[in-house]
Design goal:
single chain; alpha+beta; Alpha-Beta Plaits; SH3 type barrels; 3 domains; 6-stranded antiparallel β-sheet; 5-stranded antiparallel β-sheet; 11 helices; 13 strands; 34% helix; disordered C terminus
Length: 399
């Protein structure tokens, strides 16, 4: 993990300081505080922080270097101010003198080698992931939840998380997933963790305590007897969509009614979206995942329980069941919904945010240069010397 702030190209080949953190159990919270405080502490000075994270899991955030992180900058005084952040102890110095002149420096070649090792661990975490694997979401709004991969495409996975009364689809990069395929089938609940494993292993009756959470409690409100369209009472009021007015509910009703053509289902969904009868999804890749999942679970698995994935459906029943998110987009090119969406990070660490900030800084510098050119030179700056006029002394004599 790298925190980069300012013109870090000025720090190339520069050695790194080592910063000690107070507690291994609160490293993640401390790093959040450091990330928020860096802009106000360093201001215009560049700084780069390297956190060698090697293990990520539920309530687990381990560093390869224990409680030490690497940091480099040209500004020593802001660096010392980092000690004011809760969780930061001090710079690592010789003899624990805490004096910056005695700081122990790590060569850039060594740190770059550690960075390559951590990158390898990061990429290995999601290696060999396939559709149907049980995974944990590492970061995001659904962080630490567990589910199964429905679809993988272009480095993006669609994970289905089955909660108690509803099922949600999470679109996330594949590298944001942790492979939990070693977990037994009877323990694959959305909240799986060490507590669940210990419960099942220590108590034979433990597996019955979580058995109800392995399946969703279906709601009668999603049955096919419901009306497909519900009109809003007042067109001026903002639309509020119930759980029955979603893509998932509509697709499920269509499949239960006997519609099994994926593109026909997609066309009905698009028409309902354009009429604003159902909530507009984030992108068409989600629509593709919902249609494929419902066809697999509520139609093909019922007529052929031996099917394990949708690829076997295409191989067994024909290519008319093959479709994609791009094929759905071609049904109506005027539909203003993207095929995929990969939102940049909202905390200023994304490439888009850095480019935007760099552009704003360049504009500000151009404006400041123009202002300095238009300022008139002062009398003291044009080479002339101003002197005060002499005033004749007044005589103290009186007449």
């Amino acid at each position: 993990m790298l925190f980069q702030y300012g013109a870090i190209e000025k720090l190339k080949n520069k050695s790194w300081y080592m910063m000690e953190l107070s507690n291994e159990k609160t490293i993640e919270q401390t790093l959040r505080r450091i990330g928020k405080a860096i802009p106000s502490i360093f201001r215009s000075e560049p700084v780069e922080v390297f956190i060698p994270v090697c293990v990520r899991d539920l309530d687990v955030f381990e560093l390869k270097t224990g409680i030490y992180i690497f940091i480099r900058t040209n500004a020593i005084h802001p660096l010392l101010r980092l000690k004011s952040i809760t969780g930061v102890v001090a710079l690592v110095t010789e003899g624990e003198t805490n004096h910056p002149s005695k700081a122990i420096m790590a060569q850039d070649s060594y740190v770059q080698e550690v960075i390559r090792d951590i990158q390898k661990i990061f990429y290995e975490r999601a290696k060999n992931l396939r559709a149907g694997d049980f995974v944990r979401v590492i970061d995001g709004e659904t962080r630490d939840y567990c589910g199964k991969i429905e679809v993988m495409q272009n480095g993006v996975a669609c994970v289905r998380i089955n909660l108690k009364t509803k099922s949600i689809l999470v679109e996330t990069p594949v590298r944001n997933l942790l492979n939990l395929n070693h977990i037994p089938e009877d323990q694959r609940v959305f909240y799986h963790g060490p507590v669940v494993s210990n419960l099942v292993n220590d108590d034979p009756q433990g597996r019955f305590l979580i058995s109800d959470d392995l399946k969703i409690t279906e709601e009668e409100s999603l049955s096919k007897s419901l009306p497909e369209i519900q009109q809003a009472s007042n067109s001026d009021e903002p639309r509020r969509y119930s759980r029955q007015r979603t893509v998932t509910a509509l697709v499920k009703r269509l499949v239960n009614d006997g519609v099994n053509s994926p593109l026909q289902i997609a066309k009905t969904v698009i028409d309902a979206i354009k009429r604003k009868d159902i909530k507009t999804p984030k992108n068409l890749f989600i629509v593709y995942c919902i249609i494929k999942d419902n066809l697999m679970r509520n139609y093909f698995k019922k007529i052929n329980p031996k099917l394990t994935n949708y690829r076997e459906v295409i191989h067994t029943y024909g290519r008319q069941y093959k479709f994609s998110a791009k094929a759905i987009a071609k049904l109506d090119p005027t539909l203003d919904i993207p095929v995929f969406t990969l939102e940049p990070a909202k905390d200023g660490r994304s490439r888009e945010a850095r480019l935007r900030k760099k552009t704003e800084q360049e504009k500000a510098s151009i404006i400041n240069q123009d202002k300095t050119k238009n300022v008139k030179p002062s009398a003291q700056g044009n080479g002339t010397k101003r002197t005060r006029p002499k005033v004749p002394k007044q005589s103290n004599t009186t007449v």
